[in-house]
Structures are given as C-alpha cells and as structure tokens.
Amino acid sequence: MISRFPNLFLRPSMISRFPNLFLKYRGAAVRNHRFHHRPLSPPLALTMPDFRPPEHQVAGHRASANKLGPLIDGSGLFYKPLQAGDRGEHELAFYEAFSTHAAVPARIRDTFFPRFHGTRLLPTESRPGEPHPHLVLDDLLAGLEAPCVVDIKIGAITWPPSSPTPYVAKCLAKDRGTTSVLLGFRVSGVRVVGPGGTVWRTERPEVKALDTAGVRRVLRRYVSSVADEGMDCALATAVYGGKGGVLSQLRELKAWFEEQTLFHFYSASILLGYDASAVAASGGEGGVRVKLVDFAHVAEGDGVIDHNFLGGLCSLIKFISDIVPEIPETQPLGPS
Amino acid sequence: MISRFPNLFLRPSMISRFPNLFLKYRGAAVRNHRFHHRPLSPPLALTMPDFRPPEHQVAGHRASANKLGPLIDGSGLFYKPLQAGDRGEHELAFYEAFSTHAAVPARIRDTFFPRFHGTRLLPTESRPGEPHPHLVLDDLLAGLEAPCVVDIKIGAITWPPSSPTPYVAKCLAKDRGTTSVLLGFRVSGVRVVGPGGTVWRTERPEVKALDTAGVRRVLRRYVSSVADEGMDCALATAVYGGKGGVLSQLRELKAWFEEQTLFHFYSASILLGYDASAVAASGGEGGVRVKLVDFAHVAEGDGVIDHNFLGGLCSLIKFISDIVPEIPETQPLGPS
C-alpha cells in the first residue's frame, strides 16, 4: 500500500509547492485526512459495484488492467486515482479547501465544479494487495444518455509561477507546440455521439497536432449532428447559445474570474458536456454542462485575479461566439 | 546614415517576424516608405526647435549626448528614435497599419493610442553626419502643467509566440523575475509631482525589484499628494475613479480587447497620465490619460483575441479598483 504513494503515507507533513494553501484553508482534521481514507464500506466491499472506466473519458490516462485511471460506478460517482508525487496530494488539498471555502459562492461551486465526496481506497487489478486512494467526485456526465464531451485545457501558461525551471521548460515546449500560447487554450479531447449512436472521437496524436483552424473545426464538429467527419453545426444554437447554454454559462464563469483572487487554476480544464439524445428529442435543452476539472496545479491567488485562466476563457468565449450567431439577450423582466 | 540602421535602408524587402502584417495592411507606397523619410523641412532645419528629452519619461532609454532617446519639441510632438534591427521597422509598420486600419474604431484609436505623424530624420548629437529616423507621435503628456505618469507593461507573456527560443528564454527570465507572470503586468516606471512641485520618481533597479506588495504601494503612491514617501491616496477618486477616470477608460479598453482580433500587443505598455496641478485646482477633472505605447513586438491577431493583454488588463483593473472605492455607475438616461 505504501510503494505506489510514498509521499501520501510516509511523510510527516504535507509538502507542496504551495504550502500556504494547506495552512490557510485546511483545519487540523483535514490535514490528517490522508490517514483516514475510508476503506470500502462492508456492503460495498461485499457487493463490489460495477467499477469501470467511463466511456466518455476523452483526456488523461485511461484505466486498464495495468494502468490506473478514473472509474465510475454507475451510481453517479467518479473515482479519480490520486496522481503520483505532489500532484495527488495537491489536488486533494484543493478539493478540500475549495469545497468548504466560505468566499466561494455556492452558485459557482455547484454549477461549475464537481462535488467532492472525500477519498476512498479502491483495490487495483494490477496490485490486488495495494488499494489506491481515489478522489470521489460527481460523475459530471451521469444521467446523459448520449454524452458528448470536449475537454479544453485553459491558459497560455500551464505551469504555476513558482515551478522549477526544468518543469517550466517542459510545459512551455508543450504550450508552444500546441495552441495554448497562441489561443490561451488547447483542446485535449472530444467525443461526440451522432445519429444512430455513432461515436466520433479524437485520437491523442491528432488532438495534439491541432492548429487554430483545427480547433475551430473541432468546436464546430462538437455541435454537429452527423455520422462522419462532416459538420452541420445543427446543435450550435441549442448547445452553445440560449439561456443555460455553453456561452451563457461561460460568461457567468468569466464574471467570477474577473473578481476572484482565491485560486489560480494552472493546467485545469473546462469540460463541456451535453446529451445528444436529449437535444435531438427536445430540440432545445440538452443537459448542457460546463465544469472545471484537473486541479493538480492550482496555486493560491493571494489577492490577484487568475489573469491567465481569465484570458484563455475570454478567448474560448470568442471562438464559440464566432460559431453560434449571437442571440440578443432578452431584457430581464422587472417591476416597471 | 546607413551604419546605424542597415536593415531599414539596405534590404530589398521588409523582413519581419510577422511578414503578413506588412503584406496585408501596407500598400505599395507604404512599403517603400522607408526611402522617403521626410528630412527636416527647411524652416525647421533653419530654426531647429528646442528638441529635448521629455522630463516625464519614466521608462526606456533616455536621450543624452551619446545615446538616442525620445525627444519632444515643445509643440506637442514626441520623436521616438526607430529602434535597431527589426524592432524599429516593426513599430513603424504597426503605426502605419494601425493608423489607417478600417476595422479599428476611431474612438479607440483617438482615445487610447498616440496619433502617428509619420517619420522624420533628425540629426543626432553623437553622429552629426548621420541623421536618424524617428517616429513622430503626439506627446501624450503635452499640455499638462505637472505631469504624473506611470508606465505599466501589460501581459504575463512579453514575447510573440513565433519568437526564437533564446529570445523567449531571455524574456521569460525577466517576466518571472518581475511581477509579469504573477500579476499579468509589471510597473516600468513612475513619476509623481507633489505639492510645491516636488518630484517623486522610481529608479530602475528599484522598479525592477517590485513585488506584488510593491506594485500596490506604487499604484497608491501615484495618486497620493505628498512630498515624500507617504501615501494618502488623496487623488484616488479624482484620477482612478469617476467618469473619464482611469478605471472607466480601462474598462472601455477592455471591452474592445474582448472583441478585437487584429493585433496582439506583446510587450506593449499602458501609460497613465494626469496633471497634478489641474487635479489640485479643480478637485476633479485632471486631464487623465490612458494610452498604449511601445509596439515593437506587436503580432497579427489572425482572428484570435489578445488573451494575454486582456488578462493583464483585467488584473490591472482589479488592482486599481481595490484602491478606489467603487463609485456605482449611474444608469444612462434614455428614452423611457
């Protein structure tokens, strides 16, 4: 149980690039949290629910017999293995700080972030005797019959400013080699369910090679209802536009980022999701979801806004608003 | 005349990191512009007006007997020597493209940019036989009796994405060594005129060493009416707040940056200016000016917003709005 995650279990204190994050936001009970991973509760251990890799995963390591990767259990929960080294600890610390932080508006937390349900040790296929700690989160695409998802890593800079130079150099090469520096974001993966259940998804080498034109194509393909490479943008208005659509949600998120100085979300992603079946059926509301994920490199804001995330978010908003013709916002009804 | 500026005069075609900038926006006449610097007109050459380094210069090379630097002539014009190598050509090309670009709103051009009056060859003290080409621009602080100015370089990234790796490494070291990466901007220089005409200004080593707290201090000192290091922020409401104040102008600029995809302003600065005498006299309007300057590293936007400048601008807005208590905007009067 120790070998895979030595830092988490052996070190006397949490070590992090951002120690203040822990000191400021985590109480003593939370600081010791790592010693209290809930094991599988007896009924769960006995019945061993149907843990499986989510079909809708489009980025990151995929779980297999030899590899750790996220799992879902069919009940609406998503289990993300703690990453090795500081990253896992750091993401856990973020979720703990964020989920109880008094200055985070409930509306923002509930709308734009996965709900955090603590951690759980899960057995792993490759090392049966070594259960691995997982973050337990909401499955963001639970309940969608035909989940369509795009993962977009936000920010021209993907490394926290305090990172050591070799790490900066490594990230910078990726950021310049993809669209991150140029656009302020890059697409990490896409999955679209078309008519008849056909699935169109990007492969990793392809997605890494996307240029500006490729990003535009992918964002159009994501809202197209076709069985092949074609693009009709038939769902653009339903998914991107309108009340509750992607643009409206991104603009609400932007307003928060113009003010919030608590966290800087380096290397985090925005996950867009919708239900192709629901959109096709209703022609309107399609369970559109806009969520932030991947918090292994979050830094404390220290009174400064996250200009890097905000800039990338504004760029994404512009890209999407170029796809869907702007629907003029209706004037709110109020007492006349 | 050739030795100091070989590129400008010898090369058969403009060479630039961003050749499209020239191809798209510059007509044939403009492309040949470099062969047609207006020499001093005879009356000017005869009378030789009082060219002198501007007292209010706070960043960049200062003109002296041995060094080229900007000059003013007392008639409201500002002469900026073309920088060596590609930079000078590039800044000239930007001014020519920008000043005639049909997609730039006149209000934005007139409010936030120095007016461009072409180029002029001026004799230099150090090499009397070698006149040097200068950009002729509006002196942004002309007419202010007691000009107070702060120069703020905007953007966490100060290098155009297509820059060669060694240049990126050099810029990145500066950007990480100053507040650029952390805050999305850095202060390059400040000059404040206090009661009785006392001048407080930052020295270069001091300004380079500013951290987040130092930036907050300088932005407070800039609107303080004191004769020493003290800070009373007495002018914060007059200069930063209110209609026509810095915040209001920065927000108008921000709205343009959320939409404009023509130019990316790497390593450009926002210059804030006001007249300490006018503010003291009227208690209100103080000739507040918000201007962009330094365009040697502008890149073409190619349909993408300048998320890097926009993010830094939003961060600056937040810093300044933390200093002046927000004055609620009045509802615009319209037909009921």
Query: If you average the pLDDT of chain A, what whole number results?
Result: 84
Q: Report the principal-axis shape of chain A.
A: globular
Order of secondary-structure elements of chain A: HHHHEEHHEEEHHEEHHHHEEHEEH
Number of strands of chain A: 11
Task: Give me the secondary-structure category of chain A.
Answer: alpha+beta
Largest interface: A-B, 27 and 27 residues
Description:
Two copies of one chain form a homodimer. Chain A has helices at residues 6-10, 19-25, 28-31, 42-47, 86-100, 106-112, 165-177, 180-183, 204-208, 212-221, 236-239, 246-257, 276-282, 307-321, and strands at residues 71-72, 77-81, 116-122, 132-138, 147-154, 185-193, 199-201, 263-265, 269-275, 289-293, 298-300. By secondary structure, the first copy, chain A, is of the alpha+beta class. A five-stranded antiparallel sheet of chain A has the order 7-6-5-9-10. In chain A, a hairpin with a 5-residue loop joins strand 6 and strand 7 (199-201). Chain A is globular and about 45 Å long. The termini of chain A are far apart. The model of chain A is unreliable at 1-36, 38-47 and 330-336 (pLDDT under 50). The interface between A and B is medium-sized, with 27 and 27 residues.
